[in-house]
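ENTRY TYPE: protein
WANTED: fold as tokens:
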Amino acid sequence: YIYDRKIQDINFPIEVSDVFYKHRRKRSNMHDPDHKAIIRGDSGEVLGMVGSKYEVITHREAYRLGRSLFKEVFGSRPTVFKVDMNNKGSYCHVDLLNPKERISIKGIQKARDYKSSINEEYYPFIRISNSYNHTFALRYNLGFYRWKCANGLLMGAGTLGDIVISHDRPLEESEWYVMDAAEEFAKQINEFDEYVRRAGSIHIPKELLEVVTMDMLDRRYGLDQKPKLLKMSEVLRGTIPAYAAELGESALAAINIATDYIKTVENTQTVNSLQSRAMDWGMKVTGENFNMASYLNELRTYKERVIEKAHQF
């Protein structure tokens, strides 16, 4: 389980070493001035080979800066919600939230059901990402957890809720850059209410929620990938009835079906991209110029030609 880590696990010593190599025609070791090695001090493992201008910001420093960003945005001290780090410690993700910082969205009109409305609550969170080997840039993402089930939505790359710091910036400059962007995070939080309301009002027929979720997560498998398709279909068909009943046959239900599914398959390589994909999809379909009728017709065709055939044979 990828979240068995504790915040203390990210706090280990880091050493930086020059790089030497052996040349087959020379007896002495050769120095490589253009690269350096990042080494885990307690185990001696090499975590990354990087360029000479690479600025090392430790996981601990990234975490402390994330706490400062959270305080600036929300005016409160955060709690560590999830810690994800690979075995070597070469990269990590840390999610910070405050359980008192709920966003209450009341009176969301159900799609095509004018007599019914629902109330939703979310925890905004900040995800810290860092690595010692170029796997991830130093990054701070704004996201939202649904309080009932901790389904996570992550703002996509390039949005106001996404701060990326290249590893050629020293720590002091990175701190300034991150804190300067705090105001942009606050703007995204203020707009999240309207986003959820729009998603709740967009009608998606129950029989298409499965295929919409597959498309949302870029998992439109073909018949040549039948085992993967059927496995995903089985999981989705187990959750669709409950979400459709609670949230209506809507884009909001589709988003939560997708983020619920992510929890069953997520791993350290896909969790960021999948959670971002769900939010990106929601922002796309809630846009004023999106042609939902055409989109659903396309997916209905895929369902008939691929998914239904896969279940028949």
In short: The CA atoms of residues 103 and 190 lie 9 Å apart. The helical segments are 59-74, 171-180, 182-201, 209-216, 226-247, 251-265, 271-285, 292-312. The chain is about 40% helix and 25% strand. The mean pLDDT is 92.
